[in-house]
Amino acid sequence: MQVIRTIAWIVLTALLVAFIAMNWTKVPVNFWPMQDGNYIHFEWPVGVLALLFFGLGMLPVWLYLRAVRWKLNRRIASLENSLRATSAPSLTSSQAVSAAPLEAAPIAESSSEPEKP
User: What are the boundaries of the region Disordered (predicted)?
Assistant: First the structure.
């Protein structure tokens, strides 16, 4: 399974590098308007912009899924703890009193020597 995962990451990385290499032409990006009607702009490669905005678009979904996973892990831990608490043997006062004489009774010891006739 680890080999398949490694191969998938290598293929994905190769595709991303090929995409950026094919789209390396720089384009002006108007970033912020200024008072005189001009813009603050940068000239970035198209591939870098596409990956940047893909990552920014994926960020809210990733954060949401991490929050759901955290919530479910907390819920599972809570349910496991409540199950442990209910399944643990607890002694009530009547069980403790009835168990006391059994523990105090002497146990007959067996000797290792056989009895002689």
Answer: 84-117
Q: Average pLDDT, stretch 56-61? A: 96
66-109 pLDDT per residue, tens: 999 999 999 999 999 999 999 876 655 555 555 555 555 555 55
Bridge partner list, 33:
39
Contact 31, 43 (CB under 8 A): no
pTM of the entire predicted model: 0.54
For the chain, the DSSP string reads -HHHHHHHHHHHHHHHHHHHHHT--EEEEEEEE-TTS-EEEEEEEHHHHHHHHHHHHHHHHHHHHHHHHHHHHHHHHHHHHHHHHHHS----HHHHHHHHHHHHSPPPPPPSSPPP-
Distances (CA, A) of 79 to 23, 42, 71: 51, 53, 12
Sequence-separated (6 or more) residues with CB below 8 Å from residue 50? 19, 23
5-41: per-residue pLDDT in tens?
A: 999 999 999 998 998 899 889 998 888 888 888 888 8
